[in-house]
Structures are given as C-alpha cells and as structure tokens.
Amino acid sequence: MILPIVAYGDPVLRKKAKDITSEYPKLDELIANMWETMYNAHGVGLAAPQVGLPIRMFLVDTTPFSEDDELTEVEQKQLDGFKKVFINAKIEDETGKEWDFNEGCLSIPDIREDVKRKPEITISYLDEDFKPHTETYDGLLARVIQHEYDHIEGILFTDKLSSLRKRLLKSRLEKISKGKINVDYRMRFPNIKKGR
Ligand SMILES: [Zn+2]
Predict the structure, then answer these.
(1) Which residues constitute the catalytic centre (predicted)?
(2) Mean pLDDT computed over 86-97
(3) Residue pair 195/17 in contact by the 8 Å Cβ criterion
(4) In angstroms, what is the span from residue 196 Cα to ligand 1's centroid?
(5) Of 64, 151, 171, 172, whose CB count within 10 A is highest?
(6) What distances in angstroms separate CA 161 from CA 62, 147, 167, one per listed residue?
C-alpha cells in the first residue's frame, strides 16, 4: 500500500525518532509499504518519519544512482542492487574532508541544493531480521545513508544550508507545507487549509 509522504513543516520530521523492538506491530507490512511508497515516488531512500512514524527505521535502494555515467564502474557496481533496511541505526564515526552533493528529499519536492557532508561513515544497525551489523561506507552510499539517518534524528537537508540559502528558500518551503505544489506522488501537508 502506498502511504502518504509527510511534507516539510510537519512536526514528525523534527522529532528524534525512537528505537523499536522486533515486537513492533506489523513491522513486515510497514517495511513492504515503505518500499512501495519509496519506489512509487522514485526515491533512493525513505525514513519512517516521512510516513508519519517517529521510529528509527529507514530504507535505502541506490540502484537508480548506478546508471550515472559520471561514476566509475566500481562505484556503479557498488550502487547497483544496494538495498537495505536500517533499524535502530547509529552512526559511529564520520571521517574525511567534506564534499558537496546536490541533494533532494521526497518530503521537500522540487528543491535541490548542494549539501556538504563527510565522505566516509561507520554505522551500526539492525537489519529487518534484527541481526546486528557494523559497516563502513563511502561515496554516494554514505551520502544516501547520511541523508536518511538525519531524518531519524529530526534533521532535514535544508537545515545544513547557509543562512542566505535558507532565507532564499523560506517562501518555497512555506508553500510546500501548505500543499501549494505539484507533486506526482501521494503526500500529506501539515498546513493545508481544510474546507476551502
Ligand atoms: Zn529526505
């Protein structure tokens, strides 16, 4: 089932999300619905707060990025078929010199901005079977994981922009929160006026 994606301005996107246990109700169904929702919106990642749930879970499938001709063959192979569920994730370490990448977000349609992040991360998490993993990623894989990880910390990529960029985007972000935007997937807007 395709779930509505929560738009910028909804308080759920600002909560530090909570860990879950394997007893979490209908978790398999939620994960299946989140995959369906993410693919329907042509995203490469989706975090639970974006479907209204303040829990520490996100999904990543970087396959669409693997078709980028500017990447090396090694990078393309790394991204192709990288599909994972991250539960109760914690970034243990972030290293290297910050680099810019043009990011977007399903909760903030039509806005893309260069965001600086460190290139390498070590993350521990549970998979969908609640098996623990600690892994190190770099490049675009790290980038997508960092973006989704921010969502479970209540952080959006627009928070990381300069104060000038933020000022310039302010009215567009307000429009998004009011639903004054054309988007080809299902969304839920926090500041939509009802009955008009
Ligand atoms: Zn996002």
Answers:
(1) 148
(2) 98
(3) no
(4) 29
(5) 151
(6) 24, 13, 10
How far is it, in rounded angstroms, from Cα 124 to Cα 134?
Answer: 4
Binding-site residue set: 105, 147, 151
CA of 133 to the centre of ligand 1 (A): 23
Distance 193 CA to ligand 1 centre (A): 24
- Beta pairing partners, 75: none
CA 135 – CA 141 distance, rounded (Å):
11
**pLDDT tops 90 at residue 195:** no
Alpha-carbon distance 191 to 174, whole Å? 9
* 48-67 b/e (C-beta count within 10 Å ≥ 16 → b): bbbbebbbbbbbbbbeebbe
Q: What is the pTM of this model?
A: 0.96
Cα–Cα distance measured from residue 184 to residue 182, given in angstroms and rounded to the nearest whole number = 7
Residue numbering of the annotated binding site for Fe cation: 105, 147, 151
Query: DSSP class of residue 85?
Result: E
Tokens of 141: 């894989």
How large a percentage of the chain has pLDDT more than 90? 93
Pairing of β 187-188 and β 5-6: parallel
